[in-house]
Amino acid sequence: MGRRVYRKAAEVAEEREVWRREISNPLFLCVPQRLLRLCGESEIFGFFRCECGLDRPRGRFHVPRMDTQNVFVPRGGKAEIEEGADFSPKFDADGLIPAMAVDATTKEPLMLAYMNEESLRRTLEIGEAVYWSRSRKEFWHKGATSGHIQKIVEIRTDCDQDALVLLVEQIGAGACHTGRNSCFYRRVVAGTAKLEQISGVRSFDPAAVYGKH
Question: What pTM does this model have?
């Protein structure tokens, strides 16, 4: 343990106020809410450096700067959107865009999730998939809990730039919370309203990885 550095009360108060403003800002992606609930503000403040999607302490607390290079260009006309070189994603009324993750090697569909503007920017910044969880209402760095990270190989968008395909290197045993490699492990039987499993084999135990299922 390094020696503790004591500072003036005014300096501490000023830094604490910066902290309070940052955690109330939607751009602050770096402290998962579950970590805040487990540790509490007083324990995180001054002792932990939390980075996007990482749930472990990283030394002294530090607020990393948001990426300022990947700024999306405002959407232009039809020709610009369909043929231009600027990435101008179209987010829906809820501020979201669908993102389909596909295995870059096998081309197997892995999962469908959603991104908002900031999670897409962070995905471009760190080279790993960061989604927006619609159920938890928080940023979701895929694999932060399980270790099943999705490294970005390529991102494609469609003609309208309102949908994304992520070609990824899937790290770990799988992408699905049910313990399978892919969330698309069933298909619809032709001409019926029935499902059949393509592969029912689980590649990992979700209870062991997530603690519950």
Answer: 0.67
Question: Given this model, what pLDDT does residue 12 score?
Answer: 53
pLDDT tens for each residue of 26-60: 444 444 444 444 444 444 433 333 334 333 333 33
Residue segments in the chain with a per-residue pLDDT below the cut of 50: 1-7, 23-66, 213
* Domain ranges across the chain: 9-64, 82-210
Can you give the pLDDT at residue 1? Answer: 44
Residue 48 near residue 40, CB atoms below 8 Å:
no
Instruction: With beta carbons less than 8 A apart as the criterion, state whether 90 and 76 touch.
Output: no
46 φ/ψ sector (left φ>0, alpha ψ -120 to 50, else beta): left
CB 115 within 8 A of CB 132: yes
22 backbone dihedrals φ, ψ, rounded to 5°: -65, -45
The string of DSSP codes covering 128-146 is B-EEEETTTTEEEETTTTT
Q: Which of 65, 44, 210, 45 has the alpha carbon at shortest distance from 143?
A: 210
| Contact (Cβ atoms closer than 8 angstroms) between residue 61 and residue 46 | yes
The number of residues in the chain equals: 213
Q: Which superfamily, per CATH, for 82-210?
A: Phosphoribosyl-AMP cyclohydrolase (3.10.20.810)
Q: What is the DSSP letter of 190?
A: T
